Amino acid sequence: MVNNEFFRECVSLMKKNGIDSAYFDTKCIFEDFPEDNEKIFSLVKKRASGYPLQYLLGQWEFYGYPFRVNEDVLIPRADTELLIENVVDICRKNNLSSPKIADLCSGSGCIAVTLKKQIPSAEIYAVEISEKAVEVIRENAVLNDVEINIFHADVLESETVKKLPELDIIVCNPPYLTQEEMDGLQKEVTFEPPSALFGGTDGLDFYRKITALWKNSLLKNGWLLYESGDGQHKDIKNILGKNNFYNITFSRDLNHIIRNVTAQKQEDK
After folding, report:
1. Burial letters 99-134, b for 16+ CB under 10 A, else e
2. I need a labelling partner for 40 at 20 to 30 A (CA). Which of 2, 107, 116, 246 fits?
3. 245 has which bridge partners?
């Protein structure tokens, strides 16, 4: 049974420290650690310091599925669910019943695992450079009872491309923050792995390198889908156009920001 006075005390502590979601966060902590007031208060204090709720709980939901998270991986965000919806839509419209799909810069594996849940007959490849993140991907595959192909490898190396088969679809949520954005991160985001956030001075390094390096691993008329930062879509469109992609479309997230760029590989003439 919840001690209402203790609950209000915890909410108040978070509010005093500028946590806008104080009530929701306190509720989540109370639900995960019932009847352990010492543990609860310890977590509330840590959350009040700006530490992310998702890491405190050790698990977060993405597309309705549970995912383990820690400081080795980015926290799954609702905006990224757009990638899932777009891939599923492409498969449906193009009758791709058993597509080969690579998730580059896989992180927690939330995209790769969710795609396998949504398209069970798909052959999914998750590629991630961080060994610790790879362990999280494995845990999340088991947690969600799916089998995917997991590669501990650098997506920017040509040797990695050679390890995978020809693909119908490549999906990627790469590091895309600029140096300026890295310098002004919100407190919560500073606890997430910088290597999964920083995309070079202008935030476009990974789009340039991945597009050029991986385009030849796509089958004719194959698809490349990127998550992107606010205002980056025009630059990414130019990068895709220079690399022989066409049918380039944009999708907006819940905040009406263009968050996804989808493109198709030009068929050889």
Report:
1. bbbbbbbbbbbbbbbbbbbebeebbbbbbbbbeebb
2. 107
3. 265
User: At residue 212, what are phi and psi to the nearest 5 degrees?
Assistant: -65, -40
Cβ burial, residue 204 (10 Å; 0-12/13-18/19+):
buried
Token pair for 139:
């845990």
Phi, psi (rounded to 5 degrees) for 63: 55, 30
> Tokens 């590091």 label which residue?
175
Quote the pTM value.
0.94
58: how many CB neighbours lie within 10 A of its CB?
10
- Is-contact 244 265, C-beta < 8 A? yes
Question: Distance between alpha carbon 204 and the CA centroid of its chain, in Å?
Answer: 17
pLDDT single digits (tens) 113-171? 999 999 999 999 999 999 999 999 999 999 999 999 999 999 999 999 999 999 999 99
Residue with tokens 């845990």: 139
Cα dihedral value 191, 141, 92, 106, nearest 10: 40
Give CA angle at 36 (32, 41), nearest 5°.
85
Gap between the Cα atoms of 60 and 43, Å rounded: 16
Q: 225 to each of 85, 134, 156, 222, how far by Cα in Å?
A: 11, 22, 17, 10
Cα-based distances in Å from 132 to 135, 143, 147: 5, 17, 19
Q: Per-residue pLDDT tens for 230-241? A: 999 999 999 999
